[in-house]
Amino acid sequence: MAVYLLIMSRTLNTVMGLLLIPGPDNKKKLIWWLLGSMAGTISGFTFSRLFKPILAAVMCGGKDKGPAIFSPLIKKKEDLAFLKNKERITSLEKIREGGLGEVYKAELPGSNGKMISIKKIIQPHMSAAELTRQDSKTLNKKMRQIRSEINIVGHIRHPNLLPLLAHVPRPDCHYLVYEFMKNGSLQDRFGNVKQGTQELDWLARVKIAQGVASGLEYLHMNQNPRIIHRDLTPANILLDDDMEARIADFGLAKAMPDAHTHMTSSNIVGTVGYIAPEYHQTLKFTDKCDIYSFGVVLAVLVTGKLPSDEFFQNGNEIGFVKWLRSVTNSENPRQAIDSKLIGNGFEEQMLLVLKVAYFCTLDNPKERPNSKDVRCMLSQIKH
């Protein structure tokens, strides 16, 4: 508003100055100046009228083009029409809530009881006047994450990766449709194990470890450009009906060209306790950062402890990984094994997995194994 008043003030001063100075040349200048001002005003008004729908198109994805289907499990687009009904969405069972939005559980119409999970990514709607610099940065980050998840997950298939079934764009949000994993996440499972409501024996744990390693190798070695997950944690490892691991949540994933060795990010990403130490210093996320995160996951599977446990918050140890190193190098590394697993005859296997976790979480990323090496080491563990 202040800028507008300043412009108007200068305009009036210019007009008065030209009127007070006699002479035909000044009258011509005044006429041309007035014509120019009118043209500028009209074009500015026109641009402002056009800018708002353009901004809305960028922010809201433009015209609703309907769902993009990536899997034959969804027979026709009409099966997802219920996602246009806000009342129907709010009546669904909410199973999870994350940084980008909520996750619901629903039955896929016309599928004889097939259950799906629907991630609702809320997209803030702002006018040009309301869009502050910080709002713009936040919006751009969310949009990058949405596009990343859609472009990457929609086209990759592997037994240990959770496939994206469909993407449904809406004016104020995006719906990402996945298969529902009835056994929840690995983190959920550990929570239930601690409460005594579920079990997770060693054979199931080593199967999960081998599955995650296989999925990670596929992302790192078999994709062009290769993919870095950037947030590999128990919360992002889902378990299907057969307790097979499915790596999920590629909202933070990045495609990494083979010609480069890292991706640089201006925003800190990942989950505390699983982030490689070099990332804090360089903000360069490499495949070896994923390996570090996977090493922490391996340690969780063996120890039954999470980096967020009170044991590491209130104890004398600095953190989970340093505690792991201390125990692994001690005279009695078996003390790190989850007490629920002791006495079942697999302690030697557990110590081997603990050693792999140790190598994956070394401070120097060059000393860590790659995902293929990790998968090979874990595949040697026979039951």
From TrEMBL:
It comes from the Eukaryota. InterPro entries: Kinase-like_dom_sf (IPR011009), LRR_receptor-like_kinase (IPR051564), Prot_kinase_dom (IPR000719), Tyr_kinase_AS (IPR008266). SUPFAM superfamilies: Protein kinase-like (PK-like) (SSF56112). Gene3D superfamilies: Phosphorylase Kinase, domain 1 (3.30.200.20), Transferase(Phosphotransferase) domain 1 (1.10.510.10). Pfam families: Pkinase. Residues 89-383 form the Protein kinase domain. Signal peptide: none annotated. This is Leucine-rich repeat receptor-like serine/threonine/tyrosine-protein kinase SOBIR1. It comes from Ziziphus jujuba (Chinese jujube). The lineage of its organism: Eukaryota, Viridiplantae, Streptophyta, Embryophyta, Tracheophyta.
